[in-house]
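help with these tokens:
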Amino acid sequence: LPLETNGVVVVDAGPFSQRVGLRRGDVIVSVNEVEVTHTDEAEMLLGGKVRRIHMLLQRGDRRIVLRFRV
């Protein structure tokens, strides 16, 4: 990972990870265009009434965008 990477590291991607493309070790940089720096921020943005997710990840030296519905 680049040293300047900010975000939350995925430790347990959960049961839907394979379907949406999320992997252990990915760094969640933002959710729905909101920068994420702490686990509780990610949980808040991913929970609740939001049905469409736009997630920016850092995977190694690559930036990846995931879009999915929950």
Notes: The first strand starts at residue 8 and ends at 9. The beta strands are 8-9, 27-31, 34-35, 52-59, 62-69. Residues 9 and 27 are 4 Å apart (CA to CA).
